[in-house]
Structures are given as C-alpha cells and as structure tokens.
What does this fold into?
Amino acid sequence: MSTLTGTRGLIRLILRRDRFLLPTWILWLSILPIQTAVATDQLFPTAQARQDYFGTIVANPGLVGFLGPVFNSSLGALTTWRIGAYFVIVGLVSLLTVIRHTRTDEEAGRRELLGSTVVGRHAPLAAALLVTFAANLLLAAVLTAGMVSLGLPVAGSLALGLALAAAGWMFAAIAAVAAQLTEGAGGARGIAVGVLGLAFLLRAAGDSGGQGSGVSWLSWLSPLGWAQQTRPYAGERWWVFALAAGLVVALVAAAVALLARRDVGAGILPARLGPAAASPGLRSPLALAWRLQRGMLLGWTAGFAVGGVVIGSVAESTSDLAAESAQLQDLLQRLGGQGGLADAYLAGVMSLLGVAAAGYAIQATLRLRAEEEGLRAEPVLATTVGRVSWTISHLVFGVFGPAVALAVFGLTGGLVYGLMRGDVAGELPRVLGGALVQLPAVWVLSGVAAALFGLLPRLAAASWAALAVFGSLAMLGPLLQLNQGLVDVSPFSHIPRLPGGAVSATPLAWLLGLAAVLAVAGLGGFRRRDLVSA
Amino acid sequence: MTATAIAVSGLVKTFGPTRALDGLDLTVTTGEVHGFLGPNGAGKTTTIRILLGLLRADAGEARLLGGDPWRDATELHRRLAYVPGDVTLWPGLSGGEVIDLLGRLRGGLNPKRRADLLERFDLDPTKKARTYSKGNRQKVALIAALASDVELLLLDEPTAGLDPLLEASFREVISEEHHSGRTVLLSSHILAEVEALCHRVSIIRAGQIVESGTLADLRHLTRTSIAAELAAPPDGLLELPGVHNLEVDGTRVRCQVDTAKLDDLLRQLTSVGVRSLTSQPPTLEELFLRHYQAQQPAGAVPDGRREGASR
It folds into this structure.
C-alpha cells in the first residue's frame, strides 16, 4: 500500500464538506478584482486621470506600504495595485483550508477513524494540498478570463491570476508545514497566520520606501513580495514564479518528511502545558469570563486598531485625490463640498464599523449560549454562582467589548488622520466621537442577543439574522430608496453621521433605553427557565 | 443537619410530549451512599438536574438539605458538589485550573486533599483540557468535587470513562467519604459498582422509582439460586409452588426459588439426602433485570427519545 492510497476518496470528502465554502471564496476572490478593474476604469477614464492617480499613489508611502508597489499608470497595473490586499486574503484562505483538512481533523480524532481504513499516511495531507492548489488555479483561470474579456492584455491578466494563485500555493505549503508542528489546530493556525503577518510586514516595510530605495530588499524576503514583484501589466517577470514554485516544492517536501517522522495526533513541537494550579485571581465568574473572552476582545481590538490606521491614512488621501482629479472634485462638490469629502468618507466607514462592532457584541453575548449548549454552564451553575451573576459576567463583554474596540479605532484613526492633516487636537476628538456614537445601536444588538438567550434560547442564533436585516436596511435602504418607515426599523438608521453631521440626543436615548429593556428581559427570562443544551 | 438529605415526592418533568419523570419519589438519608440505578434515559440525569436547580419540576415536591432546590439554589450549592455524567471543560484551561476554579466557586477546597486525589487518580494537572481524554475530564470533575468540603455529593455516572484500576481508587475514595459522614447520591448503570458501594438502592424505570430499599431488603423479594447434588434422583419431589427454572439431571438439581419458599425447598431436598449444596443470593443484576424484563408500561417512551429530550 502506498502512503498516498485513498487520496482520491479524501479529495471527494473535502469537496463534499466544502461544497459551499470552496465555490464561495473562489468566486468572490476572482470576481471582485474584475469588478475593481471596471470601477477603476470608470473612475479614471482618461490617461491623464490615471497618470494623476498614479502620481498620488507613488507619493504616498502609507498607501504603497499597505497595498504594495504600483509599477505604471496603465489600467491593469492600477487595478493590480488596488487589489493588493487580495494577496493576503488568498494566502489566508488557502492556509486555513489546508489546516482545516489536516490538523483540525487530526485533533478532532476524525483522522484516526480514517487512518484505520485503507488510507495511506500521506493521503490526508496530499488531498488537502491538491484541493487547495486546484482551487487557486481555478481562481486564477476565472480572474484571467475576466480581465481579458475587459480588454486587458492577456500576458498581464495571466500573470495577475497566477500571482494570486502563487500566493495561495505558498501559504498552503506553509500551512502544510505548520500543521505538522503542533498538536492543536489553533497552534498550527497561529504559526501559519503569524508567518503571513510577518510576510506582510516585510513587504510593507520594503515597499514603503518606494522603488529602488535602501529597504526594498526586505520585500524580497516575503512570499507576498514575490507575488507582487511578478509585475502584472508592467513587464511581467515570469522568473519570479520559479522562485515561488521552488518554495512550494521545498515546503511540501519538508511537510512530508515531518509527517513521516511523527505519530498520528502528535506534533513535532511539544504541546504547551498550562499551570498546575489556577492563579489566585481565577475565583469568580467574571474571572472565568475574562479567560474565555479575552482572546476575542484582543482580536477585535487589534483588528480595529489596524483598521483605524488604514482608514485614517486613506481618508486623508481621499481629499488629495479629489484635489487632483477633476471628476472627483466635481462629484465632491455635488456631495457637499471639498471639506465634506473626507468627513463623508469617514462617516460612511463609521456606520460600517458600527455594524461590525455589533457583530462582535453578538458574538460575545452569545458566548452564554455556547457555554450552555456545550454543557460548560452546568458545573458553574452547580456551584454558588447564581444565574444572574453568571449571565452578567459574559454580558459585560458584550457591552464593553465593542466599546473598547470602537474607542481604539477612533483613537488610532483620529491620530493618523490628525497627523496627516497636521491637526491632531482638532481631528482626534471628531473621529473618536464618530466611532463612539455607534454604541447605542451596537448595544441594541447586544440586547437582542441577551433577550433571545434568556427567552428563546433555541433561537439565539437569530441575533445574526437581526444584524443582517438591520445592517442592510441602514446601509442599502437609502440607496434603494426604500420606505423611510422601514429603514427606521434599524437601530443603525438613527445614528448621526459623524464626523460632520448633526447630533440629536433623543434617538440615542431611545436606543439606550431599548437596549437596557432587552437586556433586563433576557436576564429575567434566564432566571426562570430550564437549562437547555440542544 | 437534617436526617433526610434528599426528599422527593411525586416529581414530574415533561419535555414537550415526553414525560421524563412521572411521579418520582426518592429519599436519601443523611450519611448514606445511595445507589440510583437505571439504564440511560430512565430519568436519572433529569432528577439530578432538578435537585441542582438547573431544571424546574412541573409538579411534585423536592427538598434538598432542608431547602428548595430551585429557590435556594446558590446557598444549597455551597454545601454540595456535583459531577456531571458528560464532563466538558474549557479547552484553553489546564486541568489544575479547572479544579481550582470549580472548588473556589463552590466556596473553597482542601489543598492537601487536592494533592492527594491528583496522585491517587493519576492526573497530570498541567495539561490543557482540550488534550484530555473522556476519562481524564471525568477525573478533573471528580477531583474538584471530592476536594471540596461539602455535605452532599451528587455523582452522575462518575466512572463511565475510568479504567478498572481507577475505578478501584474511586471506590476507595467513596468509602472514605462515607466514613467521614458525607451523603452520596451515586447514579449508575454499573451494578457491581453500586453493589460494592451503596447501602440503599433506588431503581428507576421510565421516570418512576420501581424499587427502593437496602440490598438485603431487595434480595428478600427475589429468588435464590440453588444447585445441589442429592443422594438419589428427586423424582417429582420438587414440584413445589415458588420453584422456578428447575433442571434435574439424574441426581443433580438446579433451580431458583422465591426467597420466602426457601425453607420448604430445603426440607424437600434433605428428605432425599444432600451430598453438596450451593446457594446463591440474587445479584443486583438479577434484581434489575427482573424489573426491566417486565412489560414496559403503556405509553412508555423508547429510551433513545427520552435520552435525547433529557440531555
């Protein structure tokens, strides 16, 4: 029996398990770049407009650092630059896919079940890699075809598709190695995502100096740098693909060798041990909730902090771009004048951010339901911990977690935007206010989740549906010119558009009151009901 | 301290159309180890969850350590410890952390006892809970419960994941608990364990207690197995009322006899002349099967459905 026996069957298993997930990301990640090309063409229809845009980008190290180098002012090259973040996303999705079908299965014990059937030692890894590689090639094919159909050069389109696929292949191979190292899937994901983050930082640092600067060699240490240095639509450098292929071969060989050297279920690195006794502080439901929620809080806050930096810098450049593009300036004036553009942009981002923060609020609040369903609430509630204090211990994170994340976004965003405008004292409070004013609507969603948990626990997940409905009504309602009464159902519709808009306290007070009533209803309901696990 | 640790009468709990408990009566005296026997889905876990105030009874009365399990839940929980049948832990916490946390939430635990139990149950407290097997998770919950200084232990199938060696340590620990005066309600479907540990037993079927008493009481109601070798073939001598499953093979006789008729049978046998005689009291298994082989009451729910609803 070869060590690859059974690979074909496992590939079918992966395709069955991911029959929705795989097509979804392949389509999104190939169609959105095509859509970006169309939008870029509409926004900068003339060679002169594109040249101006190109000049603005090159002059902004923050933008080049974030998205990558831009090589010329052709439509293809500008599109390639604008989708710079997709290299990271394709890498991330690919590495998650590989770990999901290798280490996650192994940790859950499913690998063991398979291992007892006619499946070779290397078959699960081979199946996961083959599926991920093929998905990336499919993505490249759709992307290339789409770009060519828009009239862009064939060679550049092919290079762009392959560059994205190369990023996917390299990080799939990195994940294959990471999956051999740790016992837990979480640890393996951490290592692979850490490598991705390092690759991004190296590339960002190398590119931020502009082309030919003293630090540009840093980009060449990063697989993401290689993918972008293939220069689609700007004198393609095909030999860089050989570099990527070499890395993939080396990493896969390493993963195969490591796999042959370890037991099923074991990792190369020793499993991290925990303390033999709890720290003195771990003695209350709130301390337990902090242990369970801190990772999520840290993740969201870090994400919002980075988001603030990016948005703060981009908001400033929106007004730069506007100053140099006649079309945009025209558009701006119709929207409310030069000074209004950056504010309008920021206010729009803030309302999106409010919806995202409400997602975190729901996630943190529904931890209650997850603990109950996972039977972990039971041993805690069988101690002297009462139901109300246990519920509040998690609700604290559903209420203050989003507040922390939004405040951090306001601070980093306001700081960067203020620095770029040379007026931190003036801009920081305005941006911070725009972020924090989202909270009453966010808390209504925490309240919805708490109320469903307490009163209709089996329907607690419907909080997400509420978020989807409220979010779409507030975002799309005005665009689709829906009935105002319908749009007003969403709490997000009552949030003032800051910075720049007018503030009225009454709707905010109503939202706060509603959130409080919902939370109290949830607490009361949970005090009276049975614990239900399924 | 009240003389009755647990007093339940006429307890009813329904989950939708399913009647998980159907007029259950249960009395556990302070200081005893009480076996709560029944197959999966009979209502053991539901009863314990009601006693913990995790579920609310639809009808009937339940008193626990002199209090109301629903209303006085938090005060009562200071005086009891619970080991669930299906132990799930927080994957990111180490076993030692979980033991300390649950002990502290219960109002403190004895560090000497904790160290002693860790050794006796052979548990590595530094491993993260996500890496523990089912048996090890069970040990974590057991140690957290046993190291707490409480009056009452509610154990729901506590040895389901333990290997035989650890099961022996578990029995040892429980008899120590008994000697130090604690009350234990031990739900189980492992008859040997209940037979070895418990003073009194309640057998539950389809949400009702069908038999309750000391092991000696229960045995009295049932049959003793007799195997004898006689001086001559018994030839029809043994057609007595109360004798069952009679097998005669020349001079060898095997049968089961209602314990009340044992005397009559022995007289018959000795009248023929006895060469050898073995008499075996009924095992708990036989007691148990007697109740479960009896016809299911009308409207009884298949085990699988009941289990699904009560979990």
Summary: Residues 35 and 201 of chain B are 4 Å apart (CA to CA). Chain B has two domains: 4-214, 223-281. Chain B touches chain A through 45 residues (CB under 8 Å). Residues 164-179 of chain B form the longest helix (16 residues).
